[in-house]
């Protein structure tokens, strides 16, 4: 796999040869000192050009950076900046390098430079790799805090708790019925909805609400206490039904701990009565005789 130095050089050298490419910025995790990166981390690149359609309508230029095995295209309208349109080309190359290109018109960079607050895509971090016309000189410095966890209101907190304990009730019924696929679906729905949100709030509270644990918890291992992370691992299971029952109880137990800790740090009241009622219900379903006539 190419090194970061090699990939960056290719990105810049190609731009130098393109008259219509006036600036190049590297954004995302590779431009964020607070991020955890490795050889598989994406390269988020902004090409600032005088003619966006030349690069949006003809994608042949993308092959200059390697053999493409799969790609994704999109476009975005910046309503807050005179409805300027940008184009993205997300490219996975055969040697493992992934480059996410964004094509910006020069006018958009000029408008962004006039604002007091950077858009999140730049505020998370950026590095100027090339600037032929000094277009980036007036850009504000990034805070690297664009995606930090926000402190929830009491209403937001209670809503997450209530919805977690409501959706939990689907899982024991599915397990009792031997409906593994649906049980798995509901567990992942709970995990990546309410459970993940509570984990983020727990981490946020522990770090004074100035932390970003990564997309869908990709950096949880760095921010959770080792013992707590081991408990998180136990919430995953395979296809064995007993394993899934154990994982469900682990999710419930860990959510309870996180919820209580977050509520303490924010001065809120965790609805333990709701927790206890649903927990009792789950235990009763697990004990229910499998020969009981199904009526639902």
UniProtKB/TrEMBL annotation:
<dbReference type="InterPro" id="IPR043519">
    <property type="entry name" value="NT_sf"/>
</dbReference>
<dbReference type="Pfam" id="PF04439">
    <property type="entry name" value="Adenyl_transf"/>
</dbReference>
<protein>
    <recommendedName>
        <fullName>Aminoglycoside adenylyltransferase</fullName>
    </recommendedName>
</protein>
<dbReference type="InterPro" id="IPR007530">
    <property type="entry name" value="Aminoglycoside_adenylylTfrase"/>
</dbReference>
